[in-house]
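WARN  no MSA supplied for this record, continuing single-sequence
INFO  ligand: zinc ion
INFO  echoing inputs
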Amino acid sequence: MKRTAVAGLLVIALGACSSASTPSTTRVHGTSGSASGGDPYFPESGNSGYDVGHYDISLSYTPSHPEIRATAIITSRATTDLAAFNLDFVGLTIDRLTVDGAPAAFTRAEPELTVIPKRAIASGRPFVTKVEYHGVPQPVKDPSESAPAGASELGWTRNSDGRVFVVSEPIGSRTWYPSNDFPGDKARYDIKVDVPDTVAVASNGVLTRGPATQGRSTWHWNMAEPMATYLATVVIAPMREQQTQSPAGVKILNFFPDDIYDESVKDFAKTGAMIDYFSGLFGPYPFSAYGEVVISDQLGYALENQTMSIFASDMLGRDIEAEATVAHELAHQWFGDSVGIRRWSDIWLNEGFASYCEYLWRAHVDSSYDIDRAMAQLRAGSESHLSRPHDPGKEGLFSSATYLRGALTLHALRVTAGDDVFFRILKAWTVKYRDSTATTAEFIALANETTGRDLTTFFHNWLDTPQVPPLPTR
Ligand SMILES: [Zn+2]
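INFO  complex generated
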């Protein structure tokens, strides 16, 4: 995620599982899985008692009409004996709900959807929940913003002209599909969107297009690698595709609004070079393809949806700041998407890393750019507003502390460990936790192991104290 407020600060500084189910032979007296994923920032989000392996979401939409009609098939595995379990889901009307093919009872107290299957599910067993639903999705307010009245809206968002986009971080996914809505439960996805031929559909993964029938077609997107719920997206609008690739051959499929297509092509002209540069530093690009989608809205943010970063049009332009945003969202594909966070309190592992990558890119393309000097300037101007980046509190998730002090922390580690060892740590991180989730403690352990030193105090001072420590010098 990147918002203009944070970007402004930077400018100063820069200058699954199987769906088969067999009947239970032993009687299971399950308990209810918890209606919380256990994250203290958003205790009502996520659930426990099961682990989702795959979401198969089919939905139908026509821009002239706000309603969607959809089916979500969720393949999960019970992690405890379950007499009931919860999903997060708001607003839409459920027409039919089955578990392993049998109609299941359910109750709703938003955001909770409590499902009571006919027979309890034994711990360790796979089960398939199918939810058929319809209605007009309503975005939810971003709970990480301190002023609820003016807070941004998350989730399925429809413009008056019928265009749709989805930006969900942190908790917007529940507005368009029932989910275990917290970052600790990644899953694979198939997202199939049936629309008229007047619009295109951008989403996550690799695209297969169905044949057009009576002026409509289904855009089938397959996300083969596990993905956090908040990174699932759909953009429906009149858009033109740009198919290209990085110099080393990573496929790129971009979607730009018709009326700003040519400008957008220029805005993203360096993406391929960025992919290859970051691949050299962090290890191969972690997915089968990358893409960027632009929406014709002045929203002041961009988000690293997995394999399909989304940019509000006011985040773009051919200046240093816009280029930094393109690099930032791309870098998140390694840091935040492939290596995800398990808890929101570790958000600096996403934002600090993506922010530092903006500086790395700048130093790569401009030989006169002195990253040590830029970091020293950032550090000098940071005393008053950079609080702790680790566990910053719900309202600190997208504050400059997680972005900029996070970036400073990485630069301090680089100077302390030396360039070779520092980049070895980052590479080892993307290999060890690829397609998975990780924590700050795991990053510190890896840094200790790779450097052969005990950096516990170093990280404590950088991540957990009110005062920004002095930057070490080379
Ligand atoms: Zn970000």
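The CA atoms of residues 340 and 437 lie 4 Å apart.
INFO  checksum written, moving to next record
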